[in-house]
Specification:
By secondary structure, this protein is α+β, with helices and mostly antiparallel strands. It has 2 helices and 7 strands. Strands 1-7-6-5-4-3-2 form a 7-stranded antiparallel beta sheet, covered by helices on one side. The termini are far apart.
Length: 152
């Protein structure tokens, strides 16, 4: 079983700045409390092939995660795929960014979750939790991006 969750928000910052903020996955802990630690490999600007290695805490358990950037089109699209071996993984995820007339940015985030092994039984629960939190997750992205990006 697999499934998708998504959220759409509007960030009161220019699309180029929001793209730069989101393309640097090291910012994820600012809006995702489950991310305990994250690093970019190589430690250079994000490009296709860049890997983000993290330690996350889900349902009280810490797991190691690795995501590879699969597509990057500034300033409108970021795509990733999880390459780590966990029971539930994000086969594909991404951000779609759209500039708004008021210099703001519409951001759509999505993840397609797959279950592997025992994870085939757990992926439905993971999807339900992610869908339930999607709007709040989007709001946390908006708050963090607006706090981190200079409004000028």
């Amino acid at each position: 079983m697999s499934g998708q969750f998504e959220a759409t928000i509007e960030v009161d910052r220019p699309v180029e700045a929001v793209f730069d903020y989101l393309a640097d996955g090291r910012n994820d802990p600012q809006f995702s409390p489950r991310v305990l630690r994250i690093e970019r490999v190589p430690d250079a600007p994000t490009t296709v092939g860049t890997v983000f290695r993290s330690t996350v805490k889900d349902a009280g358990m810490k797991t190691a995660r690795e995501f590879r950037i699969t597509d990057l089109e500034a300033p409108v699209r970021i795509r990733w795929a999880e390459v780590s071996k966990n029971s539930v993984t994000a086969r594909e995820g991404g951000y779609d960014l759209e500039p708004l007339a008021d210099r703001g940015t519409r951001v759509r985030i999505f993840n397609v979750l797959d279950g592997h092994g025992l994870g085939k039984l757990l992926v439905g629960l993971a999807l339900a939790a992610a869908r339930k939190d999607a709007d709040s997750f989007g709001a946390r992205i908006k708050t963090a991006a607006e706090a981190a990006i200079d409004p000028s």
